[in-house]
């Protein structure tokens, strides 16, 4: 991808590549932009997308690709020529009848450059196999953006992620913040399997070891672990483990887990009173969120609310009510 990147001459190609890899259909092109899409530039676009090694290895959902190319061809047909390969590609997709696999890949581009990409295998479904953990939620992208703006907090620290889901936030920390170690956790076995797959995709250079409960990816500089941690079963927590920082995205949504979640945090505060906790939420239900604040009141912690105001390294939906809670032990 890095070499391919040198060939991008025009912003519009970059814009299209970015929207395609990130699975975004809501792009618009002006007449001037379409005019920049000469056959040569269309060729560059296809080299960077459907003919790239990234796409070949980790394809996007076929239905998305069909709609993306249909829209692009419609733009091109108005003011310009259409590269034959585009028609060929869309025809090849039409032959694929039912997309059986509920999972596909999304490529999250960090800081608008096509070099730093996180690839996540995930679904579009909000709930699948009885869990919400099979897709990347908006709070995960918002928290990752905030983390990238505050990398120094995570440098050389032991990080624990609760309710990691497909792993976007933990992978961001592991890839860009140089933590001492990061442990990604969840309660659902299918989510944990997918999480392990996503770590393997994004850290293909790390050595993997596994036991029945624990997957570890390591080299001299990085340690990334994946393990089960169900907030209802605090005994899942290894007695010798003392994180410096706990993170979690979109984990405050179900009233029945607020107390168990708080108990897990308390357990880690008792082990390390210097612990820092960052929990990101998209506030869909104010009552549940306030209930969590009340539960936190009982464990003698100070809670600060941060409301991120702008997208810096990643795009997330700024229209949603949102918050990052910074939680510390009261001294
Ligand atoms: C809405 S998803 C968020 C996933 C991910 N953090 C993100 O933002 O993309 C909530 C996650 O919390 C996990 N979860 C729910 N209850 C849990 C529990 N009792 N213990 C551990 N994880 C739990 C789910 O499996 C799911 O992965």
TrEMBL record:
Pfam families: Methyltransf_16 (PF10294). InterPro entries: Methyltransf_16, SAM-dependent_MTases_sf. Transmembrane segments: none annotated. This is Protein-lysine N-methyltransferase EEF2KMT. It comes from Papilio xuthus. Gene3D superfamilies: Vaccinia Virus protein VP39. One of its GO terms (cellular component) is protein-containing complex. Signal peptide: none annotated.
């Amino acid at each position: 991808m890095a070499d391919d990147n040198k060939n991008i001459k025009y912003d519009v190609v970059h814009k299209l590549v970015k929207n395609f890899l990130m699975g975004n259909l809501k792009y618009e092109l002006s007449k001037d932009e379409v005019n920049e899409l000469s056959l040569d530039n269309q060729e560059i676009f296809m080299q960077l997308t459907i003919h790239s090694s990234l796409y070949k290895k980790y394809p996007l959902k076929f239905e998305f690709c069909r709609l993306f190319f249909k829209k692009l061809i419609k733009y091109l047909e108005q003011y310009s020529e259409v590269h034959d390969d585009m028609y060929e590609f869309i025809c090849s997709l039409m032959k694929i009848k039912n997309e059986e696999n509920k999972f596909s890949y999304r490529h999250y581009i960090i800081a608008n450059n096509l070099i730093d990409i996180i690839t996540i295998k995930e679904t579009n479904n909000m709930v699948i196999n009885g869990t919400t953990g099979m897709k990347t939620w908006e709070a995960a992208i918002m928290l990752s953006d905030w983390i990238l703006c505050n990398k120094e907090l995570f440098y050389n620290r032991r990080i624990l992620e609760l309710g990691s889901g497909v792993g976007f936030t933990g992978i961001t920390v592991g890839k860009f913040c140089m933590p001492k170690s990061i442990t990604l956790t969840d309660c659902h076995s299918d989510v944990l399997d997918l999480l392990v797959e996503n770590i393997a995709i994004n850290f293909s250079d790390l050595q993997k070891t596994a036991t029945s409960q624990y997957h570890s990816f390591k080299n001299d500089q990085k340690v990334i672990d994946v393990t089960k941690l169900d907030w209802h079963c605090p005994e899942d927590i290894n007695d010798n483990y003392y994180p410096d920082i706990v993170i979690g995205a979109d984990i405050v949504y179900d009233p029945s887990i607020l107390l168990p979640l708080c108990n897990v945090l308390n357990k880690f505060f008792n082990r390390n009173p210097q612990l820092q906790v960052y929990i990101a939420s998209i506030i869909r239900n104010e009552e549940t969120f306030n209930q969590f604040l009340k539960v936190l009141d009982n464990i003698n912690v100070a809670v600060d609310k941060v409301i991120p105001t702008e997208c810096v390294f990643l795009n997330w939906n700024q229209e949603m009510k949102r918050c990052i809670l910074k939680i510390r032990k009261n001294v």
